[in-house]
Amino acid sequence: MDVLTDSDVKKYQDDGYLVLEGFLTEAECDALRVRMKDIVEDMDVPPHCRIQFSTNQEEQLKSQGSADYFITSGDKIRFFFEKGVFDDKGEFIVPKERSINKVGHALHAYEPLYKSITYSDKVQGLAKKLGLASPVILQSMYIFKQPGIGGEVTPHQDATFLYTEPLGRVMGLWIALEDATLENGCLWFIPGSHSTGISRRMVRTPKGTFPLTDFVGREQEYEDKLFVPAPIKKGGLVVIHGEVVHRSAQNCSSDSRHVYTFHIMDSHDTLWSPENWLQPTEELPFPSLYA
């Protein structure tokens, strides 16, 4: 199924990202949100596993970077929280459904509704149109961007966390389950920034050392004026090259910005770094998109 035109492909290749309205129907978006509401209602996270998610480098190493709960989440469905939602005993001080930053990283494997979207004819058609020979699913996430407290995502490249040799083999599919606006934290990109490589990597540290991950290199400084906003309506899709620089602001509005997102790698002649935090497991090898 062709969901991309030749001009779409060229725009993606030139800019490093592509905004496609109307990828999912309103009903499909609503079904994904209802299912996640049920998942959150049923969640039971022990206090010592209540990890506050951050994209700040120091905070990453302090929280999820040093947490087994995070680093072993690639083949599980786990819960990561916003800052300031727990008291000093690890108890919720906001309603738990308003506390979550994201759920990850294997919704595509264990949740039938999310699996059906991830492996849909539309997604397969898009991958084929972009020339992916042997795509596999790396991870999936549901991101909440909670009203009022949804945290800023600082400028970054996905390849910092999902590193391959050669580079350029990973892309993200980011589906808006609600309108993503300038007010509630839509994505911003530096067009064309996917052609200059990466300056920072998150790597696993040697076994027995702490924290469990570290960063090699530093994120570059980027001028604000280089970023272009990418607001998108409910049901829209943003295709994100693994090396394009992007960010999103804190959500200071009264509207949430729910998203289902997952990453694909073309595994043909590609080396997945054994130093990446995310690793395939016996329980969940990276599954083929075309299978």
Automatic annotation (TrEMBL):
GO terms for molecular function: dioxygenase activity; metal ion binding. This is Phytanoyl-CoA dioxygenase domain-containing protein 1. Gene3D superfamilies: q2cbj1_9rhob like domain (2.60.120.620). InterPro entries: Phytyl_CoA_dOase-like. 2-oxoglutarate(2OG)-dependent dioxygenase that catalyzes the conversion of 2-oxoglutarate to succinate and CO(2) in an iron-dependent manner. However, does not couple 2OG turnover to the hydroxylation of acyl-coenzyme A derivatives, implying that it is not directly involved in phytanoyl coenzyme-A metabolism. Does not show detectable activity towards fatty acid CoA thioesters. It comes from Clupea harengus. Keywords: Dioxygenase, Iron, Metal-binding, Oxidoreductase. The keyword Manganese does not apply. Pfam families: PhyH.
